[in-house]
Amino acid sequence: MQFDTVIKGGAIVSSAGTTRADVGVVGEKIAAVGLDLTGNTIIDAAGKFVLPGAIDVHNHFQLPFCGTVSVDDFEIGSKCAALGGVTTFIDFAIQAKPKSVMEAIEARRAEADPKVCVDYGLHAGITEWNDDRIAEIPAIIEAGIPTFKMFMIYRSQGWQSTDGDLYAALRETSKYGGMVGVHAENDDLIALFQREGVRDGLRGCYAHALTRPDVTETEAIARAIHLAEAASARLYIFHMSTGKAADIVKAARLRGVDVHAETGPHYLLLDDELFKREDGHHFATCPPIRKPADQAKLWERASDGTIEVLATDTCTFDSKQKAMWKGDFRAIPFGMPGIETLLPLTHDAGVREGRISRERMVSLLSEGPAKLFGLWPRKGAIRVGADADIVVFDPNLQVTISHEMLASRCDYSPFEGREVTGWPIHTLLRGNVIVKDREFKGAPGQGRFIRRMPSTA
Ligand code: URP
Ligand code: ZN
Prior knowledge:
This protein is α/β, with parallel strands linked by helices. Helix content is 31%, strand content 25%. The protein contains 13 helices and 19 strands. It has helices at residues 74-83, 101-112, 131-142, 163-174, 187-199, 206-210, 214-230, 243-254, 265-269, 292-303, 319-322, 342-352, 358-372, and strands at residues 2-14, 17-26, 29-34, 38-44, 49-52, 54-56, 64-65, 68-69, 86-94, 119-125, 147-151, 179-183, 235-237, 259-263, 307-310, 390-400, 419-429, 432-436, 439-440. The strands form three sheets. Strands 1, 2, 3, 4, 5, 16, 17, 18 and 19 form a nine-stranded mixed β-sheet that branches. An eight-stranded parallel β-sheet has the order 6-9-10-11-12-13-14-15. A two-stranded antiparallel sheet has the order 7-8. Helix 4 crosses helix 7, helix 7 (214-230) packs parallel to helix 8 (243-254) and helix 8 (243-254) runs parallel beside helix 10. The radius of gyration is 21 Å and the shape is globular. The chain binds N-(aminocarbonyl)-beta-alanine (URP) and zinc ion. Residues 60, 183, 285-286, 313, 315, 334-335 line the site of N-(aminocarbonyl)-beta-alanine (URP).
């Protein structure tokens, strides 16, 4: 058989192992994995890894937040995704109360659909729990959005949920196979530490970390786990930052709680000493980046299966936006760029430096997210019948990260100057080559909204 495209001679990586074979693509799908395949177009992958496209389940493109709007919109953000080997991302439609969540979804889709260069999904952000929410949950899941985010912080944004709201949402969504994910930080404790800090003359952006000590995350995660356990519901922890929290999740999973956790490269690779730099406020995100001991523990838990997903929480604010803090550590626009460097950083610091296996990387970036977020088996693996979302990755290519070589609008990278070995060189989205030799060849609107199913994993 003659395939439309054959990716030839690469090492195909899955969570189960690495196999040398060709991949045959017909139309948008993977049609064969085998030897000596022939095709109209041949992509030489000798000496390269052939990976399923990465899935970044945590992004905030063009998000109105902290008095500004994150600078990478759906077009630039998804172009960054393509260049970084991410073929599907999940963003958020956050309820603007008193409007419904469904209205937020419609508005977000209207913003994203014409602009996206890779496939995408949405989580539904619930900011007000009441009977109207109970009524619309089935329709939201039916619309392809089986995952929800609730915020245990951000009272000042009007986004915070009470424990009662969270418990009720866990109970309600689980009836339909939905999953609630939480931003787990204790708002009251943070407010207390901030008040005391300001009273005692605490200044500078290191105060962002000092007023959000580990307990502000561990208490919230432990509480959310208790609520999920009581409600017999599945719980997801977004952007987990501390080693102690990773141990809490591990213990809960061992006793049978249906809890799943994500961390990201910024927590795995950066530490809070950065806040002492002049540009330290560039690194402010919530929860904050932590200590080297946290990094080590998070890697250990990413390796042993406790952490199932690596995601970036991309929420890009450039240096002008970051400067809005004017010395008040409570007023820094929280967030950083990340989607473009997710795969190469995970490969370099994780696989190449021996912290995780190559197969585990594929599980954390593709298979794990696909299974938990209702994209499996359509996405997340190189297998017959799946979407031909494929990355050809050169494990030997040496790159020095700088904002100039990235597509983001941001005028810095949190990983500026870092030398990495290994970078994606070609990206295919549903059979179309959207990145060739590290050059973007795709187009806005080429990506699709993917209706996700409740997870069966
Ligand atoms: O500081 C962060 N993480 N900004 C993005 C919004 C969120 O909390 O995920
Ligand atoms: Zn969050």
